[in-house]
Amino acid sequence: MTLPLHAVRQSLAQTPRIVEGLIAAAPVSALTWREAEGTWHAVEVLSHIADGEITDWMPRIEQILSDGGRFRPFDREGGLVRYRGWTAEALVGEFGQLRRANLEKLDTLQLAPSQMRLTGTHPEFGPVTLEQLLACWATHDMAHIAQLARLLTRSFGRHVGPWRKYFSLLQGADA
After folding, report:
1. Would you call 1 helix, strand, or coil by DSSP?
2. How far is 142 from 162, CA to CA, in rounded Å?
3. Domains along the sequence of the chain with CATH
4. Are 119 and 127 in contact (CB under 8 A)?
5. In this structure, how many other beta carbons lie within 10 angstroms of the beta carbon of residue 173?
6. 3-state DSSP call for residue 96?
7. Pair 98, 54: CB distance under 8 Å
8. What is the tens place of the pLDDT at every residue in 52-102?
């Protein structure tokens, strides 16, 4: 595996703590602020990542290891329905619990380097390897951590007045 499995696992293990730290002191107004119409706010991002722990990552890993085959399409907005009405705090707790369970499953698989080349069929991309799926899982986390940080920065940043010019994340954002 080009990206060592232990590095992926360590990254995946840190995500719940990072997410919790980002949203811990944020007011509801910041957690439900949207950059633009049709975009997700922080609570919706949390719903999405929690849902992925149930319906995406581990089921696809297990499918690759069992028979490959075609993955069920991931409903990117399924978490918005599953977790409608949940608070950010409850979602962070749910995500942390689901992630811990998935990491325990990952550990019990005792993946060998040769298994990283096993494939499943993505509904859009075609054949993908276990290595690519694991790297995508960690990358997906980082992308949503960056998204949450950007949303909170821009929500608070609406109030910085003239200092706006010093924050690259506020450039081009609605005031």
Report:
1. coil
2. 30
3. 5-170 (1.20.120.450)
4. yes
5. 16
6. helix
7. yes
8. 999 999 999 999 999 888 999 999 999 999 999 999 999 999 999 999 999
Residue type (1 letter), 6: H
Question: Is pLDDT above 80 for 173?
Answer: no
Helix (H, G, I), strand (E, B), or coil: what is residue 87?
coil
Which three-class secondary structure string do you get for 54-68? HHCHHHHHHHHHHCC
Nearest C-alpha neighbor of 141 from the set 84, 89, 96: 96
Q: Please give the structure tokens belonging to residue 91.
A: 């979602």
On whether the CB atoms of residues 35 and 151 are closer than 8 A, the answer is yes
CA distances from 171 to 135, 165, 166 (A): 31, 7, 9
pLDDT at residue number 38 = 95
Structure tokens at 75: 């409903």
